[in-house]
Amino acid sequence: MTGPSLAGIWGRKAGTVEGFTRYSKAFKQADIIWNEHSLDAWLENPKTFIPNNRMTFRGLQDKAQRHDLIAYLRSVSQEQGPSSDQQAEGMSEGMMSQGRMLNLKALEANNRITSISHCGDTYTVTVQTEEAYEFWEFNLRFKTDGSEDGPVAGHPVIIPASMRGDRVFIIFAAPTEISAFIKSECPQ
Ligand code: HEM
Question: What's the CA-to-centroid distance between 172 and ligand 1, angstroms?
Fold first, then answer.
């Protein structure tokens, strides 16, 4: 589970980042305001500070590290550091945790998939420009995105997952589309 944005955390009530839909019950019910004391207790032991939360990060045992991290969060929160927009500009691919960069309905023709076939250990992905790309099956990851920024139903998209272009994400609008779309066939 990717967590909520921590931009503007200082003085904010826990569990209230707008648009973050994955909060646990524990967080929704928590009555905590984030400041140096609450953040220190949370980061020292997330499990006991808010029991049954969904954060997989185990925290920081080192007091000095927590102190530095909290000072950083405070300074960027009070806009002495890079804004989240500036950080987003620096990212070239993929999506951000919740402020999404890519609208998957608005990609170019060479990101729009027209067919996928599977043969042996290889997928062949054909896009709207009629180019066909081959991927070793282990380098290809299937995802779904049912949000309003996700792909059009029935029209999966392909985006790079590595700089070398040998790894990609294929994103469908819904899980039921995945196996229905992929044909098991080998080139003649
Ligand atoms: C230094 C590293 C991290 C810090 C300082 C941090 C801090 C926080 C804070 C302050 C919250 C509460 C936010 C709020 O009230 O909206 C939170 C929630 C959360 N974080 Fe982290 N986090 C860290 C790393 C991670 C990592 C590595 C993950 C997972 C990959 C993660 C996943 C989550 C999740 C899922 C929540 C929501 C918990 C729930 O709803 O139960 N965090 N984190």
Answer: 27
Q: What is the pLDDT of residue 101?
A: 62
Please give the distance, rounded to the nearest whole angstrom, from the Cα atom of residue 32 to the centre of ligand 1. 14
Pocket-forming residues, ligand 1, beta carbon under 6 Å: 1-4, 6, 9, 14-15, 17, 23-24, 26-27, 42-43, 53-57, 69
Q: Which atom of ligand 1 is nearest to the CA of 53?
A: 41
Proportion of the chain in helix, strand, coil states, percent, rounded to 5: 25, 20, 55
More confident residue, 85 or 112: 112
- CA 105 – CA 53 distance, rounded (Å): 33
Q: Which domains does the chain have, with CATH numbers?
A: 1-94 (1.10.760.10), 109-184 (no CATH)
Give residue 165's pLDDT.
77
The one-character DSSP state at 70 is: H
Predicted TM-score of the model (pTM): 0.67
Q: Which residue has the tokens 């890079």?
A: 82
C-alpha of residue 179 to centroid of ligand 1, in Å: 33
